Amino acid sequence: MTTSNLPALLFMVPFMAALIAVAGGWLVAGSARWIALAALAVTAVLAVASVPLVLTGGPLHTQLGGWAPPIGIEVLLDPLSAGVAALVAVVALLIVGGSMREVREELPGQETVYYGSVLLMLSGLLGIVIAGDLFNLFVQIEVASLSAYALVASGGRGAPRAGFTYLIIGSFGASVYLAGVGFIYAATGTLNMADVAARLAAADPSLVMVGGVLMVAGLGVKMALFPLHTWMPAAYALSPSVSASLMAPLVTKVSAYAMIRVLFWVFGGGTSVDRVLLDMVAVAGAAAIVAGGVMALLQTDLRRLLAYSSVGQMGVVALGVGVANAPGMTGAVLHIANDALMKGALFLAAGTALLRFGVREVSDLSRLRGRAPWTSAAVAVAGLSLIGIPPLGGFFGKWYVLNGTLADGRWALTAAFMVGSLATVGYVLRLIEPLFFTAASGNEGQREGSAPALVACALLALLVILIGVGNERIVTLIVTPALPGGLR
């Protein structure tokens, strides 16, 4: 393990930029957007550069405050955290860079607060990714969550109420996680993840069990894992479209990463507690695939449909994590990346459709036919990837997870996966039909959204294709080294 300031910089750059953006926005109108864009570009370069450094030279870590772990706070980048950090930073850069005009239209007079909140949320998400101890993970969860609550509540049409509901449920989840950390501290006397993992075997199993269940439940709320997902549909459907297009690809995916980190790098010792936690996650994931798919199929509101789709796709990730074998975990890690890109493209396109064409209902998508071909194409690529059409990225994530359930002989979980997949076919076809097979309606003369939004949608859709086409090399070079040691 190499000492480096790079892990800490991934948190500090957007955090400090948030303070500068707010001050600059008050002094010079419009400056906050350019400060945010510059900070996100720097963060993306640092995050992407960290991936080959970690893969070739081993993990990077920073000891904060001059105190060595386990007493001091440690932040680190290993193959998994470096890959997730690069994903978060690149997706955030594309979406924020692509939605600047839409922010001016949708949130007039709130730009400075918006970009400050975006940067704080990103710093919290990256803080979660690099956290090396359980309490610091809680702190970063709260940094990201408080900013997310503000982003949801900043709109009209029920957004404040949705934001308040999200705050109550999210705070409950964070409190449950923190209570679990307390039990683990009582059992082991430490908070450093590596140190906890080394001491769990000798700890009181009852304390470890209670602590583990509480921590997984708390992270399940943040991940919107069924049945702890109730905050998500309203938050994503009623928040400003620019907020939803940033949160949907990132917040639940980073929470899924945190669950993987806790389950395999803290509890992953092959104990009975570990097996109970994994079975809980696997069953919840299977239920999420079915419930999310069916509920999405029943929706008429476009963004609510996409929100329930996210419930189902996070179920795919949870199922892969829960079966805890090499193909399942490979699929889970791949699908975190896939769903971040797919939901980024879909929510950004939904925002364009709302602001340019007044699209709120799924049936209103016919207004885009022949008038927004690039936006429609991005929706089609992301939607077909959701179904799992090869060679798109979504196919390979789902294929690995399905193989994981089959390899374990988990037939009930396999059946749930197939039912959810059929529901996904149904709701994606409901998106594609009005875009390509229904007569155009309304909005004569209206055209595509802004050029930056189109470029961002196109790049996200292109990345979905590239992950699929380059799947074998991505799995070999990036995903496999990122898996827990016993699953490589």
Please tally the helical runs, counting DSSP H or I stretches of 4 or more residues.
19
Chain-averaged pLDDT: 88
Give the terminus-to-terminus CA distance.
19 Å
Please report which band the strand proportion falls in: under 5%, 5-15%, 15-25%, 25-35%, 35-45% or over 45%.
under 5%
In percent, how helical is the residue content? over 70%
> Which overall shape is indicated by the principal axes computed on the Cα atoms?
globular
| Helix-and-strand structural type | mainly alpha
Strand order of the largest sheet: 1-2-3
Radius of gyration: 21 Å
Beta strands, count? 3
Main beta-sheet annotation: 3 strands, mixed
What is the element string, with H for helices and E for strands?
A: EHHEEHHHHHHHHHHHHHHHHH
Q: Which consecutive residue ranges, at least 5 long each, have pLDDT under 50?
A: none
